[in-house]
Structure formats: C-alpha cells, structure tokens
Amino acid sequence: MKHSIWIIFVPTTMNDKPVRTKHHKEWDKKVKGITGGLTITPPGKGYWVNDKGETIHERMIPVWIKCSEKEIIKISDITAKHYNQDAIMFYKISDDVRIINYKGVKK
Q1: Disulfide check for 76: which of 11, 33, 64, 88 has CB 3.0–4.6 Å away?
Q2: Which of 63-96 are b and which e, b meaning 16 or more Cβ less than 10 Å from the residue's Cβ?
Q3: Do residues 90 and 6 touch, judged by C-beta distance below 8 A?
Q4: E strands in the chain
C-alpha cells in the first residue's frame, strides 16, 4: 500500500467552547489505530471563509500523518464527526516516505 505524508487540521474549539485534552486524546487513539502514529504540532491561527461568505476565526492543530489516501479520507470523516465540523482540511506533503530502522545498529 502506498503511503504519503499528510497534514490534517484539527480544531481547538467546538460550539465556541475549547476542546478538552481528553477529547483530543480520544481522537489521537482513533488515528493511531488506523496509522500507527502521528505527529502533533502546536496550534496556529486559522481564518476560513465558509459557504455563507462568513469569515471564521479558529485556532487549529496541524497533525502530520503517514498513511494512504484511503486512510486520510477515513481520518477526515472521523475528525468531522468527532469534532462536529462542517468541513475538514487536509493536504499531501509528500509521496516519498521512508523509515529506516536503526535498531541493532552499532553507534
């Protein structure tokens, strides 16, 4: 199966209230179950225009994930439901994904 590196944006608020760490950890567990791991980076400010033309200001957490296209779509679906979102943004960073195992290599 071909894997890519993707970034998906996870919201920090739901219904104008901060998302609790426990809720984020539940999402993390679901994603780990699909991909085996993820890299969570510090939140950043997001400004989005919705389909009504309204500008939405929201802090977002960029999360890096190594997975297939089918898996990132599944993760997007899970994210939309878990965070009660109208839309989820994700994008591919690279198709060239390599992991070199150095376990057992003398240093």
Answers
A1: 88
A2: bebbbeeebbebbbebbeebbebeebebeeeeee
A3: yes
A4: 4-11, 13-14, 17-18, 39-40, 44-49, 55-67, 90-94
Tokens 């567990």 label which residue?
A: 29
What sections of 3-98 are H helices per DSSP?
21-35, 69-82
Q: Residues 28-73: pLDDT tens digits? A: 999 999 998 899 999 999 888 888 999 988 899 999 999 999 999 9
Contact 31, 65 (CB under 8 A): yes
**What is the distance between the alpha carbons of residues 52 and 73, in angstroms, rounded to a whole number?**
25
CATH architecture observed for domain 4-94? 2-Layer Sandwich (3.30)
The two structure tokens encoding residue 23: 């809720």
